[in-house]
Amino acid sequence: MLNIAVLVSGGGTNLQALIDAQNRGEIPNGHISLVIASKPDAYALKRAEKAGIPTAVLRRKQFSSQEAYDDALLQKLAENRTSLVILAGFLTIISNRVIHAYENQILNIHPSLIPSFCGEGYYGLRVHEEALRRGVKVTGATVHFVNEVCDGGPIILQKAVAVQSGDTPEVLQRRVMEQAEWKLLPKAAALFCAGRLVVKDGRVEIKEEAE
Ligand code: GAR
C-alpha cells in the first residue's frame, strides 16, 4: 500500500473525488494518508478532516526563504513516508529541489488539454476564460507528471470535453471537472499505485494490468 499526500489550495473537489474513489475501492494499492494545504482556510481541509485524513498547513509566506519552505515540505512528505504526491489545485510553486526529490512521483491535474492553455499564469478559472476567448470547441483536462517545466511534464491521461454555446467560464469549469477531472485524477492515482506508469523519453506508457 503506497502512501499518498495530496496538496491543495482551494475547494478540494478533486481531493473529494480521490477520497470517494478510495472509499469505493478504486485505488486498491494506495492510501491517502496526508493532505497539505497552502492556506488555513482552504475548504479542502474540511473535506480531509471529515474523511479522517491527517492534515497540515504550510504557507509559503511564513517561511523566510524557499529553502526553509522546501525543508518543511520535504520533512512533512518524508514523515508521511510518501510514495505519491498529488497536486490537486495546489497554487504554490513546487521548487526543483522538491521535484527532483520526488521525480516521476508527483502528479498534477490541469483543466485543459495540454499543450493548450497551460504554463505560467494558467490556473483555475483563468484557463477556461482563455479557452472561451479563443473560441475552441473542445477543451478538457490533463493529468501529468510534474517536472521543471510548468505544465510540461510527461502526460498520463487526457479527456476531451465539449464547449457549448453560451458557456461561461464557471459553467465550463464545472463541466470539465465533472466529465474529466474527477474521473482522470483517481484513475491516474490508481495506475501509479499499481505500478503501471512507465516514463520513457519524456512520455508515459501505461502497462497492461497484471493477470
Ligand atoms: C481544478 O480545476 C484544477 O484542475 C485546477 O484548479 C482547480 C482546483 O479545484 N488546477 C489548475 O489550474 C492547475 N494549473 P478543486 O480545489 O475543487 O480541486
Q: Can you walk me through this structure?
A:
By secondary structure, this protein is α/β, with parallel strands linked by helices. It has a single domain (2-206), classed as Formyl transferase, N-terminal domain (Rossmann fold, 3-Layer(aba) Sandwich). The chain has helices spanning 13-23, 43-50, 66-79, 96-101, 125-134, 169-193; strands spanning 2-8, 30-37, 55-57, 82-87, 106-110, 138-145, 155-162, 197-200, 203-206. Strand 2 (30-37), helix 2 (43-50) and strand 3 form a beta-alpha-beta unit. Helix 1 (13-23) crosses helix 6 (169-193) and helix 5 packs across helix 6. The longest helix has 25 residues, at 169-193. The radius of gyration is 16 Å and the shape is globular. The mean pLDDT is 97. Bound molecules: glycinamide ribonucleotide. Glycinamide ribonucleotide binds next to helix 1, strand 5 and helix 6.
Brief overview:
This protein has six helices and nine strands; from the N terminus they run βαβαβαβαβαββαββ.
Question: What's the topology here?
Answer:
Elements: E1 2-8, H1 13-23, E2 30-37, H2 43-50, E3 55-57, H3 66-79, E4 82-87, H4 96-101, E5 106-110, H5 125-134, E6 138-145, E7 155-162, H6 169-193, E8 197-200, E9 203-206
The structure holds glycinamide ribonucleotide (GAR).
- Any idea what the shape is? globular
Strand order of the largest sheet: 3-2-1-4-5-6-7
Bound molecules: glycinamide ribonucleotide
CATH class identity: Alpha Beta
Number of strands: 9
Topology pattern, helix = H, strand = E: EHEHEHEHEHEEHEE
CATH topology: Rossmann fold
Number of helices: 6
CATH superfamily: Formyl transferase, N-terminal domain
As an assembly, this protein is single chain
What is the alpha-carbon Rg in Å? 16 Å
